[in-house]
Structure formats: structure tokens, C-alpha cells
Amino acid sequence: MTNYIFLVLPRWGFFNNFLKNNNWMATVFYILTPQQTTFMFLITLLISINRYIAVKYPLSYETFFSKSKVVIILLSFVILSTMIGLGNIPFNPSYEIFDLFGYFIPILKSKSVIYYQFFYTIILFGMISIATCTFNVMAILTIKKLNQNGNKQKRELYYIIYSIFIFITVFFVEAYFICRFIALKYKIKFFIDINYFFNVV
User: Fold this and answer.
1) How far apart are CA 55 and CA 3, in angstroms?
2) Any transmembrane segments, and where (predicted)?
3) How many domains does the chain have?
4) Structural domain boundaries, residue 17
């Protein structure tokens, strides 16, 4: 919905004059998009940790994931992801026709934004992705070790399928950010095309 309102509609020519004269709309976009993406990565990590603890330490599960602790964790995720989004404000968001893409889109005018984006899209998201995949693998290995009957075999199969899906999803999302970073940093059309492919996928 965020991309549709702030990217697709302007490409179709809707509200362009309004957006060009109201930079706060671009600011909202650059707050919401990183906030939502960061929150998605963190939730994926939380689910992986949740599943790992459930199979590795079932007796301690309630201790780690009591209702109060889950609420605190989710609030922490909201705060952290919002801070990532707010970090884009100093980089002068505005709507312009961006030569690299040829679209009327929100851009960040400051050249130094590339370093901030490298931090949260490559380093932060990369670390979260690695941790997510690691906990998924450890959970699978734990299930295989504890596997003794047909029901557990079925559960193991479901979890393997889920883990593969998460790995592929995280891979495509992280590849998208890497290609976007290279495209914006070095203005290479090849990476723009790859970025478009990942965006469609």
C-alpha cells in the first residue's frame, strides 16, 4: 500500500504538482518504507528464534515468550524500526524526476544518504538475515535429533519447507537492497534492471 500510494500513483501522474510542492510526503515515504521493512526483518528473526526455543528448550518456552515479554519485544521492534525510518529525515527527501529511473519519485537529495542506507540495508538487514537463517537451521537440526515418530517427521518436513521459503525470501530481499545500493551509488543500468527484477519477484 505504501509503495502504491507514494510510488505507483506518482508514476501514473497523480498528484504530481501537490507532491512536488509538499516535501513532507516524501519524508513520510522515507520514514514508513524503512520502518516497515525493518519491522518485517525483525519479526522474521523473532519467529525463527521462537521456533528454535520451542523445539530446543520446550520447558523454558513460556519463560522466554510470556505475553509481557512478547509485548516488550514487539514494542522494541516498533521503536527500533521507527528510528531507522526517522534517520532518513536529515537527507532532504523530496519528489523529483530521477534521471536514473526516469520516474517522478521520492528521492533523498543528500549524497551522504548512501552511507546510511548501506548501514541499514546491507549491514543491519544482512546481520538479521544471517541470524534468521542460523536459527532456522539449528531448529531443523534439533528436530531431526529429537525425531522419533511419524508426527515429528511431518513436523520436520513442514519446518524444512518453511525454512527454505524464508531463506529464499530473505535472499531475494537482501539481493534487492544490494543491487539498489550499487545502482544508486555507481549509476549502473544493469543493476537497475536486476533491481527491477527483484522488485517484481
Assistant:
1) 37
2) 24-49, 70-91, 114-137, 157-178
3) 1
4) 1-198
Please answer whether residues 82 and 32 qualify as being in contact, where contact means their C-beta atoms are separated by less than 8 angstroms: no
Q: Look-up: residue for cell 514494542? A: 75
Question: How far, CA to CA in Å, does 184 sit from each of 4, 47, 109, 198?
Answer: 21, 32, 12, 15
> Do 191 and 176 touch, CB atoms closer than 8 A?
no
What is the full per-residue pLDDT of the chain (201 aa) written as tens digits? 777 777 677 777 777 788 788 888 889 999 998 999 999 999 999 999 998 998 888 888 888 899 999 999 999 999 999 999 999 999 999 888 766 666 677 888 888 888 898 899 889 999 999 999 899 888 888 887 776 555 555 666 677 777 788 888 888 877 777 777 777 666 666 666 665 555 545
CATH number at residue 3: 1.20.1070.10
What is the pTM for the complete model shown?
Answer: 0.82
